[in-house]
Hints:
The structure holds two protein chains of two kinds.
Chain A: H1 2-15, E1 30-32, H2 43-48, H3 50-64, H4 68-93, H5 103-130, H6 132-135, H7 144-170, H8 182-206, H9 210-223, H10 239-242, H11 246-259, H12 265-296
Chain B: E1 5-15, H1 26-42, E2 51-62, E3 67-71, H2 78-85, E4 93-98, E5 102-106, H3 118-128, H4 133-147, H5 162-175, E6 180-184, H6 186-189, H7 192-207, E7 211-215, H8 219-225, E8 228-233, E9 236-241, H9 243-260
Parallel strand pairs in B: 3-7, 3-8, 5-6, 6-7
Antiparallel strand pairs in B: 1-2, 1-4, 8-9
Helix pairs in contact in B: 3-4, 4-5, 5-7
Amino acid sequence: MSTSLNDAKALISDVSPPAWYRQVPAEPVTRIRPSKSWEHLDFAELWAQREVFYFLMWRDLKVRYKQTIIGAAWVILQPMLITLVFAVFLGGLMRVPSDGVPYPIFAYTALLLWTFVSNAVLSSSYSLVTNAHLITRVYFSRLLIPAATVGVRLVDLVVASLVLVALIVYYDVHLGWRILLFPFFVIEIAALTLALGLLGASLNVRYRDVGTVLPILLQVWMFVSPIVYASTIVPPRLRFVYAINPLAGIIEGARSSLFNLPFRWPSIITSVVITLSMLIFSIHVFLRMENGFADEV
Amino acid sequence: MRPIIKAERLGKKYYLGPRETAPPTLREALKNSLHSKVKTISGGNRSRHPSVWALQDVSFEIQPGEVVGVIGRNGAGKSTLLRILARITKPTVGKADLYGRTGSLLGVGTGFHPDLTGRENIYLNGAILGMNRSEITRKFDEIVAFAQVENFLDTPAKRYSSGMYLRLGFAIAAHLEPDILLLDEVLTIADASFQKKCLGKIKQASREGTSVLFVSHNLGAVQDLSDRAFYVHSGRLHAEGKPDTLIGNYLKDVAVQASASD
């Protein structure tokens, strides 16, 4: 049977151009090699698979916003309820300093960003484990999975920003030129979140107690960052130490841009440097551990 | 003609037994890392752990349009070979170059997203293959007709029966015109009529220039389809050549082992 198939092929190729018309390219499309200690980020591959990224994101969004009202409501409610609690106890009863800005909008701005960080870091840390069935069956750059998860939370952030707009109108906040830098801080916080999400995701594949530790760490992180208070309560001589936390510079910067307050450049620049270093480090760790995901997940 | 797949001395080593190399919790990992210096001095390193070569020293070339059937006993390393070529896992040693787009269908799981509908999964798989939407749309009807899932296109894949899963998975892998098609145990699970359809489709794909590497315990299908066969035994490419000769050898080996164990 197989020989007759070969004969048939030979026959076809005699009369017409070869039926197997596909040209074999000179360069391999895929090179399969053992893992190296330093894997490079393949930008061409990421670009070729951008539709995969889109699909992964779109699927999560679809599930979330299926019942539009409830989906969007939950995304808005989470930062709002927390703001309410802090506004009553910290802003109202304890009179925590808030840079001269009404406490509710002061806290909501930061809690909006914090909710994004906290949710995105948690869900992207779990993303590889929950997508194990894909990882063990088909190949695509695994980086797209946690990245898409962060992307989904970024959409949530945009939805929840509608409340911020309402608050801006309500408190009659006068926007200045500094608001132009607000998107920059959103990008920076997304980069920081992606860095931590990648790290969490790769660790979670191997060590399953990461999911237990993360919420605790996140809670601590929230209170060492200027989210429900202004960083002015930190003594000036300790500001330098305080700014090592990149979230401090980002949150302060975002608030300064919204309320048109002077930027504290040292802490902003520190946050950019630390965020970028963390992102490079996380991508490196992720690419190194990526090779083992299918065997370990 | 230049080969479309070129593999050189591929090998894959798996570590066995207690996962001392990878503690299950971060807490233990941190604790161990404190002891690691002591361990290195006393010689308790990774190489001491029991390991097995699931695949060893496998080299071959496959031509465009060639259909190669891989036979061998369970655990011989057939699936590991396909998993490496599909880039699911990396080899420990060796290298392989693929000169074309690779579509794969490894087992029944197929890599569908269970929450996505059949329609969406077709597009997702196409995207993974690196196709754009218009390319996929062009092939869409053909895929659906082949898989006979017209009525379930908007049903999430998790509600599919295993037969539907398999049919759609095969249809996507075969119709999205990959240059290389990797199939693992697809024919064994399919029912008789779909098996026949699969065989026809594989032959057609091969005529159109797709190279097919497939693992199967269905020796009839291997004989019927393959231009060449690989006989994998304990992680090594034991023999390669004409399908009927190799199937004969394989059956002989199985018979010898069966009588030896009596």
